[in-house]
What does this fold into?
Amino acid sequence: MNALVLPVVLPLLTAFLLQPAGRLSAALARWAGPAVLLVCAGLLVQIALLTGGEPVTAAIGGFAPPVGIVFYADALALLMAIAVPVSALLLWPRAEAGEAGVRQSALMLLLVGSGTGMALSGDLFNLYVFYELLTVASFGLASATGTGRAYVATVRYVLVSGFGSLIALAGIALLYAQTGSLNLAQLADLAPERLANPLGLAAFACLLIGFGVKAELFPVNNWVPDLYACAGKPISALLAGVVSKLAVLVLLRLTVLVFDSPEAREMLMVLGLAGLVTGELAAWRARDLPRLLAYSSIGQLGLLFVALSLPGPAGLAAALAVALHHLLVKPALFMLAERWHGSLDKLAGAGRASPLAAGLFTLFALSLVGVPPLPGFWAKLLVLLELARGAGPFDLTALALVLAVTVVEAHYLFRLVGILYSPGEFRDRHSPRALAVAGLGGAVLVAAMLTLPAVSDALAGLASQAADTAAYRTLTLGGGL
Amino acid sequence: MTPLDTLYLASAATLAAMLVLGDWRRAGVLATLMYGVQLALLFTMQRTGSTSFDLSALGFELSWRFDALSWFFAVVTLGTAFFASWYGAGEWLRAYTGRRRLFQSALAANVFAMLLLLGSGDLLTLFVGWEATSWAGFLLMALAGGLARDAALRYLVYAMAGAMALLGALVVLFQAGGSFSYEAARATLAAMAPGPLWALIILFGLGFGAKLALLPLHLWQAAAYSETPAPGSVFLGGVVGRMGLFALALVLVGLIGIPHLQALAVPFTFLTAQDVVAWVAALTVVLPTYTALKQNDARYLLAWHGIGQGGYMLLGLIVGSALGSAGGLLHVINYAATQATLLMVVFGVRHRVGHTDLNRLGGLVARMPLSFLALLLGIISLAGLPPMSGFVSKWMVYSSLIQDGRPFLFLAAIVGTLGTILSVYKLIHNLFLGQLRAEHEQLNEAPLSMLIPMLATATLAFVTGVAPGLVLGWVADAQAAIGLPVIDYTLGGIASPRASLDMLWVVGVMFAGFGVGALLFYGAGGKTHRVHQLDNYAGGHFLDAGMRYHYSDNFYAGLMHLIGGWYRGSFHWLEGAIGSGLSLVAQGAGGWYRAINPAFYLLAASVALIAWVAL
It folds into this structure.
């Protein structure tokens, strides 16, 4: 399955060739990026169709794992890998003339290549490299608006990211010292004997902090509000949407394959709850829409980590439901924030000026709060049921907190809906593209609601496949060591 | 297709029609007819039950069906919707300045959502219906904007808190019993240890109590119901809050059961779970009723009474005897007719005058005599006096409290009724009695399209008062559906050896008394002397027609001198304190994300994590 490598390599290659190509032809520089993304998305879809969701692997350069580097593509990895170029296409930055435009396109391609790599990698060091690459690309994209505030926010982001990378590297070093391998499948084999100790847990903590930066995990997420508020909205949408989910995917693989211990789960749950509560409460007091969405994103990802801490395929299914819901809703909301910036109170009248946007916002808000029969409700219900299944004092506290925070969430979202629909002077309309992206999000959301049985079956399939560690190991290592 | 399918189809069709045609001049008439069709369909359905469709999602079965309890509440729902819509179909709609399509659709959505809730065949469906009802209610409350929007947002917080408590209870119950079905829940609850059972009762109580506006979850209701456009307010006030009672009847009585509640003791006290619920209901009767007494807006006065009357319903239901629970359930239908009448009159006054400020009205009986008649019948019923229907249901609740040996609860109910009588007198006096204000001298009676429904509901309240047997059959079936002892009724009332009531006799004697009085009066010559409305006295002094004098402000000054100090605003204080506390925590959370130097925190966090690992 060497075609798996192409969606990673093609964008990276194009990114490096784009600068010289820009000298030759402006049109080439402008259209090469989207064209390559289309090809990548097409390739990935074709792979998905060919394999029919069965996991496949690709050993890079023909070197067999665990010595060589391996790509592992099960249904979940492919889904995330497809989400990367598709999101990037939908959220492609507005074409700027000249150097700046070319630079931005190159950075986007870099982000897509490394993001796809992160989704497919079956090797921790490789993951780390792609993660770093993606981080660097996102620095450039985040500061592309060129305002002072964006620079300040980006510097802060750089600071936290650099710190996170350092910690992650320390974690990887610890892992390597303990096991002598960074291949996830082999780590999964070795974990029970070598990593079931405080050192193993410390390695997990380090990796959690490191990859948690992008995943908006609690203590390393305070770059989020400023950056999302100051960066271009498509970039915020991309970071909050697909990029954060890639980091989550890494943590998901780590918890499922390597660190499947109660202590690690406890750590995830505590940090998730802290993110959930602080994020939603901060969103409650937010005074402008981009920040509100950023805080709400932190809260939603907190819920995701709570879900991720739940054991078994059912817990994994809950986590995936929350993740996919957020992947769909948050970018769409950020696109709506494109024109709805400034103080929340000034948005009065926006509902009259653009009824479609206000209607979509209401739909997303309902789904985020978890109003049946919208998909957000089912995602939340799965999490709550799993928390109730655990039934320990810890789980029940988490259950109570998730429920309580939902009330806060409903209040701030519908206070805003109330403002949107009250009479006022706000007249800005959205760009057609922002509306199209948000509308697409809404359409998919409604479609998922209408085909709920099929969607839930697919979700259960994804989860059981992702939870099947034995399959991962045998397939990657070819029947064990 | 089952009869219930047809009903749902008709209700969905009403919603669709209003979404498409809501702006049409005659949309109100169309909606009224369609609610009428739904009501007719309901009457053709068997009271004891009908099934509808099933769905399956994520491995959960969702099913809808009607039993006699659903049917009973559906009658009240559709009846109220029919009259409320009629009320708003004519001149009211022509004068309405808001968005008509939105309003008509919101009303239809409420009806549809409530029918879905009433038809829920398992706990998950119950939650889906509950949320649908809550959000449809939010739409109806918020759509007028301004004050209404603020009130609706406050409602939303209470409703969501309730819904989340309910959801918490449901997931815990699911994990204990492995299913959302009522049968599994009943079995699980029967076998549950006292601790978890208490937790579930509290969660269910919070969940359903928020909609019924039980203490201490009642603060949102008056403003949210009052600020809604007239037909919406009539509908909300008449029936929407009662969904909480329906759900409590279903879960507390139907699934847990009164005997189980009686057996469940509050640790370290002599109280049982039944006593606790009964006292919450009794406090809900007393405190909001006396809050109503202090209102100076007719709409708010009635809305506060709505909260108190919900307490009577729960009080009767939770007593659990045939008589008490029948009284509680009967009060749902009686109160709906009563409150609809009263609100229609008040909004009729508002339609003509432009406001409902009790300090700036008076003497309207001379201009709006038929509205006055409807209001008079309504307040008699609300106060629970014969010959109106409110008397029957309240009498049943009182009798059951005495029979059950609960004198203090009985006393609370009586104190509540006293407050009701005082405040409805204030209502009729400040609206219709006393002097007519100069600016109202050219006023007309409410338009016919508004008069007919208000007189119709007043007539219903009268007829079911004289012959409660007409509706007691529905109540008896509903009792049977949730496993309560069934009331033994006759056309005139109740046939029971310990407490029988025959309203045909009561009303007969009453009207005979009037007849004797009339005979004496006219026999003595029937001397009458008409005086001008402004021709009156105050404190023994004659006031000439040029001196306007209408006593309305600070209406019960003497009483307030006695009990005024008891109004402490504790619930408002509690609400504010929770809000401020949350705000403080939120400020802290926001502060974390605004920290200027994140690196320090990161270092601290890493050290903490490593310490955690090491420990």
Remarks:
- The first strand of chain B starts at residue 50 and ends at 57.
- The longest helix of chain B spans residues 322-353.
- Chain B has three domains: 1-256, 271-567, 577-614.
- Strands of chain B lie at 50-57, 60-66, 493-494, 501-502, 536-538, 541-543.
